[in-house]
Structures are given as C-alpha cells and as structure tokens.
Amino acid sequence: MLQFVLSENATGKLRELMKQNGDAEKTYLRVFVAGGGCSGFRYGMALDEKLHEGDEVLQSNGIKVIVDKESAPYIDGASVDYVESVAGSGFVVSNPNNVSSCGCGQSFTPKGEAAPDQAKGHQADAHSH
After folding, report:
1. Residues 97-109: pLDDT tens digits?
2. Helix, strand, or coil (residue 27)
C-alpha cells in the first residue's frame, strides 16, 4: 500500500482551501509527479473532484488523497508540510526515496526512473514562491 503523510499544518491549510473550493466532502487532493525543474522532476498538487481509472485513493489526517498509477512509485514514502516563513509560504514535499533535489527545492531526482507522461498536463505546483 502507498505510504503518504500530510502534516497537521498541511491538513489545516488543505481543509481551508477545500472549503473555499466548494464541497469539501466531494473534493480530493490529487498528488502527482511531472517532468520539469532543474533536477528533472517536480511534485504537483491540485484539488480534484473526479477519479480516473488507475487512481489509488488513500487518506491522511482525514483528507482524501488520489495518486495516479504513473506517479505512485514517486509519491510512495512522501510527506507534505505547509510552511510559512519570511521567504514565502507553501506546501513542501519531502521524500526519502529521492536521490537529490535542486537548490531551490522545487524539483528532485528519483532513484533511476523517468517522469510519468500522464502527469505533464497538471498545472499546479506543490510550492509557491
């Protein structure tokens, strides 16, 4: 089973965003990996109300999370926090399975695999400057 954890800070911010988006009970957090960034891959997150074939559904702190099958190997073991600082605020993804990340923390290099093609259409970033 896929391991994925939302911190209390991330959970609180997501609940706030889901309420603003409409019906929080019908809203999922879609987490995905796409090609991009100086290290080759980046995490993305978006609110979604639709499940697609092959999506894995899990829960973390009461938030329903969906991950497509292409992104699942890259998401497994990840945790998400919401950080507020002088430099900005945003969601920060940590994953012990990544072998390196860029200096700004926006992209990463996983252990020897290519980015999933399916996820390239997603527009959301996991972190905002």
Report:
1. 655 454 545 544 5
2. coil
Q: Is residue 129 part of a domain?
A: no
The one-letter amino acid at 96: P
Angle CA 59–21–82, to nearest 5: 55
Buried b / exposed e along 74-111 (16+ C-beta atoms within 10 A): bbeebbbbbeeeeeeebbbbbbeebeebeeeebbbbbe
| DSSP designation for 106 | S
CA atoms within 13 A on the CB side of 90: 17
Reported as a single tens digit per residue, the pLDDT across 70-82 is: 999 888 999 999 9
CATH number of the domain residue 14 falls in? 2.60.300.12
pLDDT at 106: 55
